[in-house]
Specification:
The protein is mostly helical and 183 residues long. The protein has six helices and no strands. It is elongated.
Length: 183
C-alpha cells in the first residue's frame, strides 16, 4: 500500500514539476543612493557607443493550469489531519455541490479517496470520476484517469488485506483449538 502511495505521489509530483513555469531572476538595482560618477579625463578618444538594442520583451507569467493546482491540492490535503482535514472535506463538498465543475469534482474525489479517514468512500469517488473518464475532451481527463487508477488499486489492495486478515484470524483460531486439545 505504501509502495503504491509512493509511486502515485512520485508520478503526481513529476507531473506537477513538468507543469511549473519558471521565471528567470531579475537583476535588482543597488540598494543605496547612486553617487554621480565623475568622468576621468579621457586619454584617448572614446569609441562611439553601440546602438541601443531592443530590450527583451517581458513575458507574462502563464496562469497555473488546473491540473497543477489539483496536484498541489492533493499534496497539501495529504498533510492535513483531524479537524483541518474535516474542514477541508466539508469545504470541498460544498464547493462541488455549488459549482458541479470538473475541478471541484476531482477535488472531492481526491478527498473521498484518502485512506484511513471517516469519509473514505471509494465507490463514491469512482462514481464522481466516471463522467470525466467518459469525456475524453475534458482538459482534466488525464488526471481523472490517473486518480481512477489510484483509487481502483487502493480498493484492490484493501480487499487483499482484508482477505489476508481473515486467513490469519482463521489460522489463529486453528492454533488455539490445537493447543486446547493438547491439554
Amino acid at each position: 500500500m505504501n509502495a503504491v502511495r509512493a509511486v502515485v505521489s512520485g508520478a503526481l509530483m513529476l507531473a506537477m514539476a513538468g507543469c511549473a513555469v519558471f521565471k528567470a531572476p531579475e537583476e535588482e538595482p543597488p540598494a543605496g543612493p547612486a553617487e554621480p560618477e565623475i568622468p576621468a579625463a579621457p586619454a584617448e578618444p572614446e569609441a562611439p557607443a553601440p546602438p541601443p538594442t531592443a530590450a527583451e520583451p517581458v513575458r507574462p507569467v502563464a496562469p497555473v493550469p488546473e491540473s497543477a493546482r489539483l496536484l498541489e491540492f492533493f499534496r497539501q490535503v495529504r498533510k492535513l489531519g483531524g479537524v483541518e482535514l474535516g474542514r477541508e472535506h466539508e469545504a470541498v463538498r460544498i464547493a462541488y455541490m455549488r459549482t458541479r465543475s470538473d475541478f471541484d469534482r476531482l477535488r472531492l474525489a481526491m478527498v473521498l479517496s484518502l485512506p484511513e479517514t471517516v469519509w473514505n468512500d471509494v465507490a463514491r469517488a469512482l462514481d464522481l470520476l466516471e463522467p470525466m473518464i467518459r469525456n475524453q475532451n475534458s482538459p482534466l481527463h488525464g488526471l481523472a484517469v490517473l486518480l481512477q487508477t489510484f483509487v481502483q488499486e487502493q480498493r484492490r489492495l484493501g480487499k487483499s488485506v482484508h482477505g489476508m486478515q481473515q486467513k490469519l484470524d482463521a489460522l489463529k483460531a486453528m492454533e488455539r483449538n490445537l493447543i486446547e486439545r493438547k491439554r
